[in-house]
Amino acid sequence: MAAFDSLDDFLFSASRACCSPLALFIQIQGYMICLLLAIGWALAAYVRRRETRMIKDRMKQGNSFAFLCKDINELEHSNQINLPRVSVVMPLKGFGEHNLQNWRSQITSLYGGPLEFLFVVESIKDPAYCAVQKLLTDFQDEVDTKIIVAGLSTTCSQKIHNQLVGVEKMHKDTKYVLFLDDDARLHPGSIGALTVEMEKNPEIFIQTGYPLDLPSGSLGSYCIYEYHMPCSMGFATGGKTFFLWGGCMMMRADDFRTDRHGVVSQLRDGGYSDDMTLAAIAGANKRLITSPPVAVFPHPLATDLTFPRYWNYLRKQTFVLESYTTRVNWIMNRALFFTHCYLSWGFVAPYFMAGFHVAAALRQYFRGYSSDESVSTCNGLPLAVCLAICTIIELLSMGNLTRIEVKLCNLLSPEAPRLSLYSYNWCLVFIAMLVDNFLYPISAFRSYFSQSINWSGIRYHLHNGKISKIERHRDIVPKYTDLGGKKLRWKGGPHKVSIISSLCRSLACWHQPKKYDT
């Protein structure tokens, strides 16, 4: 009984402490964060819903191909023959369960103009190489496709190296180049929609889109879904945005041919993140980035996406804030770093406090304490109720945006398997919200102090925001990638490494001295 009395004293004291002015501020701040997220998702849902209604209205007016174009007259042969040439560059790494379907959605585009697809791999030993070869044999007489072996990167990330090699090999008459990740599942009219916007507005520097994560059921997959959802607000503007997703970027080919604004040199010379580098270039030169409302792409996550693989993905996402191109870009990244960390823990802290309030109230009820014996628990319980209400509003808004984006994706891909919300587990979504926001600052500070990252078996080291060293060892190649569960090892690949060896390497990286700016 003495132990329970001590527990009761602790809970009542903690509940009273959570009613202090500072604690009240933290809890009210948490309510505001929840409500701001709900408002942001509601605005994003409005943009997506408006586009959905416009497509349905065009269908009612007789345009059966509204999922391809706004005006059915655009499908006339006289218009199609004048469409510009587009080169689609896809840097590949590994092969996973969803890759074939994603690649098919890309190469079976209904874009009516000249179109070529460039699959770029690091080497023929990459599991993606043979998989793409087999796929392209089925379409060799229907689409213009090439497999390019880029070789190893030496001055930038392997993905950027593959992209730049793809640009070098694109057709001489290409007007627009579209960079796609191999986990981007396109709609039949996606390339056409992006091209039309580029043609209409010559001021556009980059067009982008954003994925709609389809969780596989594991906590790790829901954490990734929850991580992406706040970012989706910045892409659901229906036009101008400051955000850029590297999984879908359409640019003008001449910008690469002439190295305009240093797009090639800044990517090639120490570039780690393609989207962060290009977004920084756009900001520094006051160039326009847009995201059409139809640019939302289904993104199925691996069925065996484990929590450690989610953690690896989060590490890579926070690590991009350590790369920068200019002093201004460094300041912006640092501001984003501290703001995100503050808001993440500001979001989580009220739930810990609410836990004390609820636990104290339950102990008071079951032990039969009087209100005088457990002062302030009655004041804390309403705070927990307010947090619960704000959380429900937030989850409803998130679910509404997801529902509308699912409906939009189904409209844009009428022949694809129907997407549904029935498989979403909203209890896991709530848990993922807490887990992801709690771990984000830990991952961010881990990236800040380590200044190195293992990305698909390649360890990159940064100095002054640029890649300064690239290490490739057989024993650091993971078996699968983080999101798509893509197989990275080929036959005769690296042997299994002991857990102790892995921990020793991680510890060594953790104690690696910080590379301060000079």
Shape: globular
**Total DSSP helices:** 16
Mean pLDDT: 86
- The largest beta-sheet arranges its strands as 3-2-1-4-7-5-8
Question: Strand percentage, roughly?
Answer: 5-15%
Total beta strand runs: 12
State the end-to-end CA separation: 61 Å
CATH architecture annotation: Alpha-Beta Complex
Portion in helices: 40-55%
Radius of gyration: 25 Å
What is the domain total for the residues?
1
CATH superfamily: Spore Coat Polysaccharide Biosynthesis Protein SpsA, Chain A
H/E element sequence = HHHEHEHEHEHEEHEHHHEEHHHHEEEH
Structural class: alpha/beta
CATH topology: Spore Coat Polysaccharide Biosynthesis Protein SpsA, Chain A
* Weakly predicted, low-confidence segments: 490-518
CATH class: Alpha Beta
Summarize the biggest pleated sheet.
7 strands, mixed
Give a short overview.
With 518 residues, the protein is an alpha/beta fold.
Provide tags for this entry.
Spore Coat Polysaccharide Biosynthesis Protein SpsA, Chain A, 7-stranded mixed β-sheet, 3-stranded antiparallel β-sheet, about 50% helix, disordered C terminus, Ceramide_glucosylTrfase, glycosyltransferase
Please describe the topology of this protein.
Elements: H1 2-17, H2 21-60, H3 77-80, E1 86-91, H4 99-107, E2 115-121, H5 127-137, E3 144-149, H6 158-169, E4 176-180, H7 190-200, E5 204-208, E6 210-214, H8 219-232, E7 248-252, H9 253-257, H10 263-268, H11 274-284, E8 288-290, E9 296-300, H12 307-319, H13 327-367, H14 377-412, H15 426-450, E10 452-455, E11 458-463, E12 466-472, H16 499-510
Parallel strand pairs: 1-2, 1-4, 2-3, 5-8, 6-9
Antiparallel strand pairs: 4-7, 5-7, 10-11, 11-12
